[in-house]
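User: Can you fold this complex?
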Amino acid sequence: MDSTRHQRPTAGARDGQGTAAEQDAELFWERHYRARRSWAGVNPLLAETAAPLRPGAALDLGCGAGGDAIWLARQGWHVTAVDISTTAVERVRERARDLGVADRVVTEQHDLARSFPAGRFDLVSAQYFHTPFPLLRSRVLRTAARALRPGGLLLIVDHGSTAPWSWNQDPDTRYPAPAEIAAELDLDPARWSVLRADMPSRRATGPAGESATVIDIVLLVQRTAR
Ligand SMILES: C[S@@+](CC[C@H](N)C(=O)[O-])C[C@H]1O[C@@H](n2cnc3c(N)ncnc32)[C@H](O)[C@@H]1O
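Assistant: Here's the predicted assembly.
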């Protein structure tokens, strides 16, 4: 049985038509995914972090093509995969069904600036949760930290360099360091602790098979108390 659900935010979560910037963001990412059917595998830092964990409930923020959500489901996690693009979440749902993990994947379309999925999670992953539109990202990530069960992990992985194939080639792009991201989250140290904050580099392969060294920015936070 295909028990995968695809939900839009409830009516109360959206006020009218939204601002022009919000509509632009949704349109931008919708066009992005309509124009590309390529399939991405799991992000390496998520695989490294989640592989030793006992599977539980996971939330993938800005899931995109769904490589991470599907990988987690295949490891036994129950995953809620969220993106602003309806096309992206529909593809994740189809892929989950095709691979026989539909019973472990829930897909929800949210503009996370406006609504956030319900539930409590053992792992929340935000992999390259970047957008060219204004977004109070730290507010979304703070909400994510509060959605963790005690002992749960929030893994934030950002770009720390511009890959040659990136959609964002703006030379003025600034990449906040892990400590800056942690400071913006402003989490109470009595309830959350930082387990990892670093900037590893790795070889990466672009969509046309090209290869380059890229830097990632990693922040791993654990909820230690209610
Ligand atoms: C750079 S992509 C990363 C996608 C995926 N996590 C990955 O690692 O390949 C950023 C993702 O965030 C999503 N996104 C951007 N703004 C969003 C918002 N306000 N609410 C929800 N998702 C958003 C985009 O649609 C896109 O899938």
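Residues 25, 29, 40, 43, 62-64, 83-85, 88, 110-113, 127-131, 135 surround S-adenosylmethionine (CB under 6 Å). The chain has a mean pLDDT of 89.
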